[in-house]
Amino acid sequence: MEAYHYPQFNTVVYTAKFKDIKNAEALRSRIVKAASLDGADGEAERDAVNFAFIEAKLITSSLHLETAIYQALLSESQGSLRTKTIHSEIIWALNPTNNISEAIKLFGVSGRTTDLILVHAATSDTCDVQQKMHNIVDGRLVPMSTIPDSTNWANVKKHYKLNGELALMEIASDSDRERTVIDNIVISTVAMKSVMT
Amino acid sequence: MPSSSLSSPSPTQRLLGSAQLIYQGAEAKVYKVYLRDPELQQIAKHADHDTCSMAEDAAPVLLKYRFNKRYRHPSLDASLTRQRVAGEARALMRCLRSGVNVPGIRMVDAAGGVLGLEWVDGKSVRVLLPGGSEVMVAQDSDATDDVGPDRCEDAALAEFGVERDDLLSMIGVEIAKMHIADIIHGDLTTSNMMLRRGGKDLVLIDFGLAYHSSLVEDKAVDLYVLERAFASTHPDAEPLFNSVLASYAKRLGKHWSAIKKRLDDVRLRGRKRSMVG
Amino acid sequence: MALLRDSRNSRLTSPKKPFLALGLEGSANKLGAGVMKHNEDGSTTVLANVRHTYITPPGEGFLPRDTAQHHREWAIKVIKDAVSQAGISMHDLDCICYTKGPGMGAPLQSVALVARTLAIMFNKPLVAVNHCVGHIEMGREITGAQNPVVLYVSGGNTQVIAYSRQCYRIFGETLDIAVGNCLDRFARVINLSNAPSPGYNIEQEAKNGKRLVPLPYTTKGMDVSLSGILTSVEAYTADERFRPTGTPYSPEDDVITPADLCYSLQETVFAMLVEITERAMAHIGSTEVLIVGGVGCNERLQEMMGIMAQERGGRVFATDERFCIDNGIMIAHAGLLSYRTGYNTPLEKSTCTQRFRTDEVRVTWRL
């Protein structure tokens, strides 16, 4: 698990990547149910799943994720969140279009998820974040730097509409170079989403 | 503009407060900054990985802050600032997707007047060509690298392992790629190009006045602006600029003749302009 | 009026005897005659600065033929007044200076003809002067600005200029119409008077403007484009919210007045000019700016430029209407500067040209 410190937002963001996820479908339905539960149980359940759950195969680098986190923190500080929470906003920021349910479907956890990233933003140091992650995720914790290893590059190209772009056509033969270029475009797309149109 | 509240500065203003000012231009201040605490805190040990070698520190980001202009009407100023941040980001995006070498985008706060870009480690083309290091040395962040007025440009070029002709031809190619993508830079000067250290990338920078257009006229004017910048910055600029044009022409192929014709028109019209209109 | 000359940027040494020149200007609708004296101590004295302006009715511009006619009619009187005010005789002159260009062909020619005639009559050398260089040199002389970036704004010209290696280089300029032309043409659209000048009346009208309407803001590098803004501001006069002067409306009505349009036009156009000037200043590392040309007497432009210059730790230099607006004295002054470096114009070469770029002149008198 990593912690990113953002002094300008007085915020610490915890991130962790898990692979070999075994309870993806259960996790997904638990998140959906938590939203509609009433009373103290609902509170406890929402606290248990108080993370952004992100499909790791569509993330190209930790900078890709960090860029979405940054733009979400910025929107929150300006009172201009497009979604209900900072965590859903991160998922929204990752998606190249403005459609919220599409964002969650693509970039959130699904029944097929095998590689998952958890993000938790907090205003103070929280010591039990990692334990909370382990409580809900059945998988193996790996460093964030392994993100590119599980990236589904074809899907990234598809969702970010990179097929047919001149930038990729010129370097199609060099896959390392191609990944660097894709990563840069994808990061830039996330960074500029607020002024895209 | 940034943070109208009296209570506390906005996060972007706080970020600027922590940033290192590297250049103050007419329109914007440029900073080097880290969007987060650069040292990553690795909390957990991973069973099958060496944590130390896996830790990724944050890369620096170039922040371009369009401060407000007091001479301008406040509402005109605010809308221009927003438009220009957004316009610059969109032009860069289009370039990135079209394979033009430009800095990647890292952060956008249009209302705050701030654009965060990939940090490009390299040198301004201006100081790599003859005469370019004479003026504006005081404003160049790399000024201390320059040994003296005597052929320091060629020494700097040698440090990059690039011949002057290669450099000129790289300039032509990048501008051609940009024009093929229908992006007009709007402020082409040798100060707005960088040679990236290590690699052999020529990076076009400062898209503050860029816009989208497929018109031959706009492309010709873009070249004309560069021609004039060459003439006013580098003595005996004509052969230098001709080398740039030659590689531009080659890359553009069949579209070159129309642009060449229009460039000739624009040069002529430039002379007509001194008439009483 | 005596001015102290600062020789820090000059190649000229103080003259052994005073120099006297008559300057004749008529490139547009102002006919000017001025007598300039360069003194032994390096100072200069404006002995006379007489001007007569051809003023057309509201809604009409000045045509070359009529303007030339005006200059021919007034030449003798204006020159006589200048010489008598100066208290000199034509025989005392060292040279006769005239505007070679740029400007309108017919008016230029009629004044050049007067200059040639006087040169033959009194056996004086002729000195052909570039109009823009005249503005720049007079501006430097009056304000004491040493090496400023120059914004030259008039009815026919919009240029950002800086001196370098014996040349006034144009760093930026208009890509289509001149700023004065833009303001004058809009003044005609809303029927403002041409007296004393349409630009002056736009400036007064703008003071009552309350609303900033959106107009295109087009800067390209150090250049500007102004034709789009003229079209756009004209279009507002056909907007249903537009109320021509004299039309009644209540304060809560959503209206656009001629004053609002003058205000918006000035705020937008001047912001563009200040922006390109600042860009040139940043480019060459200068903190001084000098505004010359007819639009240069606009106080709002001077104010905006002053704010910009102050923020850069510098200052703005400007002159009043006596020297900003086309005049003969600037031609006499710039002519004398080149005459003193040994330059004069043989009779057979004393032509005019409508096109004469500022950067074509070899500035021999500066370091």
Can you characterise this structure?
Chain C: It is found in: Cytoplasm; Nucleus. Chain C: One of its GO terms (biological process) is tRNA threonylcarbamoyladenosine modification. The complex is a heterotrimer of chains A (197), B (277) and C (367). Chain A has 10 helices and 5 strands, in the order ββααβαααβαβαααα. Chain A has 197 residues and is an alpha+beta fold. In chain A, strands 1, 2, 3, 4 and 5 form a 5-stranded antiparallel β-sheet that branches. The model of chain A has no long low-confidence stretch (mean pLDDT 94). In chain B, helix 5 packs across helix 7. Chain B contains 8 helices and 11 strands. With 367 residues, chain C is of the alpha/beta class. Classes of the chains: A alpha+beta (197), B alpha+beta (277), C alpha/beta (367). Chains in contact: A-B, B-C. At the B-C interface, helix 3, helix 6 and helix 8 of B face strand 9, strand 10, helix 7 and helix 8 of C.
Characterize this entry briefly:
The complex is a heterotrimer of chains A (197), B (277) and C (367). Chain A has ten helices and five strands. With 197 residues, chain A is an alpha+beta fold.
What's the quaternary structure here? heterotrimer
The CATH superfamily of the largest domain in chain B bears the name Transferase(Phosphotransferase) domain 1
Name of the CATH first level of the largest domain in chain B: Mainly Alpha
**Helical run tally of chain A:** 10
Distance between the termini of chain B: 39 Å
- CATH fold-level name of the largest domain in chain B: Transferase(Phosphotransferase), domain 1
In which order are the strands of the major sheet of chain B placed? Answer: 1-2-4-6-5
SSE series of chain B: HEEEHEHEEEHHEEEEHHH
What is the SS-derived class of chain B? alpha+beta
CATH superfamily of chain A: CGI121/TPRKB
Count every beta strand of chain B, where a strand is a DSSP E run of 2 or more residues.
11
List the domain count of chain A as a whole number: 1
Lay out the secondary structure.
The complex is a heterotrimer of chains A (197), B (277) and C (367).
Chain A: E1 2-6, E2 11-19, H1 24-36, H2 39-48, E3 52-55, H3 62-77, H4 86-94, H5 100-107, E4 116-122, H6 129-136, E5 140-142, H7 147-150, H8 153-159, H9 166-169, H10 175-191
Helix pairs in contact in A: 1-2, 3-4, 3-10, 4-5
Chain B: H1 11-17, E1 20-24, E2 29-33, E3 41-42, H2 51-54, E4 61-65, H3 74-97, E5 105-109, E6 114-118, E7 122-124, H4 152-160, H5 164-180, E8 183-184, E9 193-196, E10 202-204, E11 211-212, H6 216-233, H7 237-252, H8 256-272
Antiparallel strand pairs in B: 1-2, 2-4, 4-6, 5-6, 7-9, 8-11, 9-10
Helix pairs in contact in B: 5-7, 6-7, 6-8
Chain C: E1 2-3, E2 19-25, E3 30-38, E4 44-53, H1 64-86, E5 95-101, H2 105-122, E6 126-130, H3 131-143, E7 149-153, E8 158-163, E9 168-173, H4 179-189, H5 198-206, E10 219-220, E11 223-224, H6 227-236, H7 258-284, E12 288-292, H8 299-311, E13 315-318, H9 321-324, H10 328-340
